[in-house]
Design brief:
homodimer, about 300 residues, alpha+beta, Tumour Suppressor Smad4, 3 domains, seven-stranded antiparallel β-sheet, flat, transferase (chains A, B), NAD/diacylglycerol_kinase_sf (chains A, B)
Chain lengths: ~300, ~300
C-alpha cells in the first residue's frame, strides 16, 4: 500500500488496499478486514457510491545546503528486484544529481506515514561478500538541530527524529511514544507515595489512564498537521530537549550527522549529512485520495 | 574504556579510565572529571592506597541452537584499523567456526554495559562502491521469544531487547527507559481530570515525579543483577508484552529474526538468527576490577 501510494502524485487517482494477511497484519491503510474474504461486497459499495472520499494528508520535503544528494534510494525497488538488480539499473533510473546549487529542492516523494531522520545504523562485516562495511557502529546517536514552526534552533542528540501524518500516527510514531501500563503504574505509585492520589491504585484505573494517554497520540489522517517525536533523547549539558514531541505545521532540521539519512515510509532514503537542511511540512495539494466504505 | 575492558578477563587486572573529553562526554566509566587536569593527584591516591576496589559486574553469554556462528565481529577493531583493514586480517584473527555441535557455547566476551539484541538495521546502496547492500529495510521489527528467570516463553515483536548491568543502567538502557517531563505532565493531567489528584499540578511536582521515576532506573555497578528492557514493544493479537522491563538473574532469548545480531557494548556483534538461543546472565567471576578514589 505504501509502495503503491508512493507512485501517486495525482489527487484524482484513488488508492484502495485490501488486507491479504489479516492474521499477521493490522492493515490500517487497507479496507476493513471483513472485505478480505468478501471483496465483491466492497466492489458493490464502490459501484453504488456507498462510500465517501478520505483524504490522507501527506508530508513533503525540501532539501538544501552543502553536499546534499537529492537522488533517492528506492528501497522498495531493491526488494522487489533483488536478483536482477544491477548498478546499471540504478544509473538508468536515477542520475547522480549531486547539486552545485544549494537552493531548496522539493524531493520527488510524499510521506504517507512518516519521515524518519537518523544516523544510518549499517554495520558489520558481510561474511558472504568478504568485504567489511565501511561503517560499523550499530547504535550511533544522531546529532542535529531542529526548529519547530519557525521557532529557535535547538541542538539535539537522540536515536532519531520521527515526523508523521495522521495516518502515520498509528504506525511507528505510536510505538515510539506509547506508554506501558507498567510505567504508568510506577509513576502513579510515586504520586501516591507523596500522598497526592485520591483513588486506590487498581489495575483498572491504571489501564484507563494508559489507554487515554496512548489514544491521545492518534489523530485523523485528514488533519493537515504533523506530529514530531524524538526517539530516546539524550539530555546533558550540551544537548537540550525542551519538547520531546508535539504537533506542528513545519519542522526544519539541520544535520550534524556523519552518515545519516531521511527515510520516507520506510521505503525511500536520502543522504542527510552535516550541512544539509530539510524543511518538512504538509501541503494539502499532496493529499492521497482513498475511500471510506459505508457500513 | 569499553574497548580496554573488553580485553580483560582477569579479576586481578584493574582497569582505570581518564576522561579526555569532559566537555562532550559524561565519562561515567572514568575517574571523576576533576582528575582530567590533575592526574598526578589521582596517581598519588592510588599510590597511597586512598581508594577502594569497585567491582563492576559483567554479563556473560551462551549461544546454542541451529545455524549459529560463535565468531564475533569485532567492531572496535574495525574502527581502529579501518584503512589497513583487510579480509585476510579478519581471517587470521577469527577463524570461521560455524559449529556443527549445537551445545551452548560460552562466548569470548563480557558485557560491561549491555547486550542488545535486534534486527540488523543495515540498509542502503553504497554510492561509492557501486554495490547495493543485500539488506535494506531501515527499520525492521525484531521477532523473538523471551524467557525471564526460567519463566514461560513469550513471543515478542519490538525494536529490540536491551539487557544491562548496573554500569550500563546509566547508558543506553537509561535513554530507552527514561520518561520525559512532558509525558509525566500529560499522565498527571489525565489523573487530575478523573478527580484523583490532590496536589496542584505545578512544574516542580512534575519534575520531582519525573526525577524519581528516572532515578529508579539506575543501580549500583556492583549489584549482580541485570535489567532487561524492551524497546518500542509492538502489542497486538499475536504478540504480548507482559512486562516491558525488570530485573532478572537470567534471560533466555530465542531468535525468530531474519538478520539479527547480539551486540555487546556497541562493539562486538554476533549473528543471532532464526533458531539461535542465547542465555544471558551474570557470573560474579567475570566482574571487572576498577577503582573508587577517596575524596
Amino acid at each position: 500500500m505504501l509502495l503503491a501510494a508512493s507512485k501517486v502524485f495525482d489527487r484524482c487517482k484513488p488508492v484502495i488496499g485490501v488486507n491479504t494477511d489479516p492474521e499477521r497484519s493490522e492493515g490500517h491503510l487497507c479496507l476493513p478486514v471483513r472485505y478480505t474474504h468478501s471483496f465483491p461486497d466492497a466492489l458493490q459499495k464502490l459501484y453504488r457510491g456507498e462510500f465517501r472520499w478520505q483524504w490522507r494528508q501527506r508530508i513533503r520535503l525540501y532539501l538544501e545546503g552543502t553536499g546534499i544528494n537529492p537522488t533517492p534510494v528506492d528501497l522498495h525497488e531493491q526488494q522487489l528486484s533483488q536478483e536482477q538488480h544491477s548498478w546499471a539499473h540504478i544509473n538508468g533510473r536515477f542520475q547522480d544529481q549531486r547539486s552545485e546549487i544549494s537552493g531548496p529542492h522539493l524531493l520527488p516523494v510524499r510521506a504517507l506515514n512518516e519521515v524518519f531522520i537518523g544516523e544510518s545504523l549499517s554495520s558489520r562485516v558481510n561474511y558472504k561478500s568478504c568485504k567489511p562495511s565501511f561503517k560499523f557502529s550499530l547504535h550511533r546517536a544522531s546529532y542535529y538541530e531542529i526548529s519547530v514552526d519557525d521557532g529557535p534552533w535547538e541542538k539535539q542528540k537522540s536515536s532519531g527524529l520521527n515526523v508523521c501524518t495522521g495516518t502515520g500516527s498509528k504506525a511507528w510514531s505510536y510505538n515510539i511514544n506509547k506508554v506501558a501500563n507498567q510505567a504508568v503504574e510506577e509513576i502513579l505509585k510515586i504520586v501516591k507515595k507523596h500522598g497526592s492520589l485520591n483513588l486506590p491504585l487498581n489495575r483498572e484505573f491504571i489501564q484507563k489512564v494508559t489507554n487515554e494517554y496512548n489514544d491521545s497520540l492518534l489523530y485523523s489522517p485528514e488533519e493537515p498537521k504533523m506530529f514530531f517525536s524524538i526517539r530516546e533523547p539524550i539530555v546533558n549539558r550540551v544537548f537540550s530537549s525542551s519538547r520531546q514531541r508535539g504537533f506542528s505545521s513545519k519542522v526544519c532540521v539541520r544535520s550534524r550527522c556523519w552518515d545519516a539519512c531521511m527515510v520516507v515510509d520506510g521505503g525511500t532514503s536520502f543522504e542527510f549529512n552535516d550541512g544539509a537542511v530539510a524543511s518538512i511540512l504538509i501541503d494539502t495539494e499532496d493529499a492521497l485520495r482513498t475511500v471510506l466504505l459505508e457500513d
